[in-house]
Amino acid sequence: MEAAAGITSAPQFPKASSYSSSSSAYSGGSHSLCSLQFNPLKLKHSRTLAIRASVSTADDSVVTLLDYGAGNVRSLRNAIRFLGFNIKDVQTPEDILNAKRLIFPGVGAFAPAMDVLNKTGMGEALCSYIEQDRPFLGICLGLQLLFESSEENGPVKGLGLIPGIVGRFDSSNGVRVPHIGWNAIQITRESQILDDIGRRHVYFVHSYRAMPFDDNTEWVSSTCNYGDNFIASIRRGNVHAVQFHPEKSGDVGLSVLRRFLNPKSEMTKKLAQGKASKLAKRHLEVQGHCLSDVRTNDKGDLVVTKGDQYDVREHTKENEVRNLGKPVDLAGQYYKDGADEVSFLNITGFRDFPLGDLPMLQVLRHASENVFVPLTVGGGIRDFTDANGRYYSSLEVAAEYFRSGADKISIGSDAVYAAEEYLKTKVKSGKSSLEQISRVYGNQAVVVSIDPRRVYLKDPKDVEFKSTRVTNPGPNGDQYAWYQCTVNGGREGRPIGAYELAKAVEELGAGEILLNCIDCDGQGKGFDIDLVKLISDAVSIPVIASSGAGAVEHFSEVFSKTNASAALAAGIFHRKEVPIQSVKEHLLQEGIEVRM
Length: 596
Prior knowledge:
By secondary structure, the chain is α/β, with parallel strands linked by helices. The active site is at residues 140, 245, 247, 293, 451.
């Protein structure tokens, strides 16, 4: 429920988790749900639609939101409210047809979304609304669903309003899939809602994209390069859609929403012209800026902490948990300072049932009200049976975090167990939290956090796991090491290496790897370059380097010597030892693209 005035509760559509991601209702055949010939000046109906729109008397401050119940739509709600507009949720197909302006924030996988649109009658109403050239903004999947079909778990038929098939990025082009991060767009024709972007980065997170070609050229308003040029936005008349997430693109994204909601508005503060030209390296606050390392202290308060090699207690007589501030306040400050992403890693999450972890849910809800960059949350996301015998799937647990404002879910220990089982049986059960969440929400919504510990070797043949020659020999002069994975906050070692775990979780559906290192944690001597290189070379999904940053040079080192897509730091930002902008300015000076 939304507590704010002017916002109703989201409609109770069928839950996304109840749908198969390979819905037979939309596979095969050549006809999409709506094959409409659309022209903003002269509309041509391909068939007579049963539902007709009534004259709208909607308030100018109201925007209609089509939220079909999957993923994080709270952030978009908050952005709309931040801009001074109220929200009316779609409850019936007639609500679409009566809308004065409509936003469709598609989140998750293509097939479940189409299944919801079909079963609720929303799809046909949506086609009719768009056919009449009425104000529409689709976001991410909300753009993809306008095309004829998608290859995601398909073929799966789309709405068929725009010619083209949505296909997966080709990793053989040397790009990592999913496409996650801040990238530049090239505006190809006047679009109105993109007028304030200039050469600034916007935030993308997706594995599938639509490609421009002769039959859809008149729709394309901008493209983005990631291996190939794909469609970043479309515009035809009053119909707009963007592949990126404006609600997660900071001030630039808010300008896109403002231009759609109020086309005649002028920004009180003009955005500075940027120099964006390609995908930027992300630096995360406790994912560039991480509020990561969130836990309860001995008084039960949720605080941000930071340890040395995972020890988060002060070395005092009281031995209390190190307190570096309140999570919501720090998140807001990091956002203002230029954080690319913010992560909340609840390092005591494995001790309690996640759905009872109300403080973390409150943190997400409040942080997302004023933080318009991606939010990741992790800690204790797994299947669970409570004391009363009620079973909760990891999908239900993740859904609660998504509804509270999370954009991505980070899985730790549970992913290790799933990988061990997969490597043992060579069979994907489909029951692990990793598999369930990625199947419904897409692999771009799932991060696997790896917590390895360095184990030195005299000879690589001494273990069955992948090892590497280390830059700095061990205490006994050992030239090699393997990286043993741990669970439960680094407390328990497991019989699996970081290399083997990374390869396995990629196959099971992970979209990103958060690569920590217990040996480097809190030391401030730099990232474990040997480890980051080993893992980033082994997988085709993005790898976030974490643990050890103590100076701006450590960030340029990890980006120049490895294939890391992002670098995360916590303590140096929590303790204000290094400003975020200092890191970005240093990277720019080193010729590394970043978002400014």
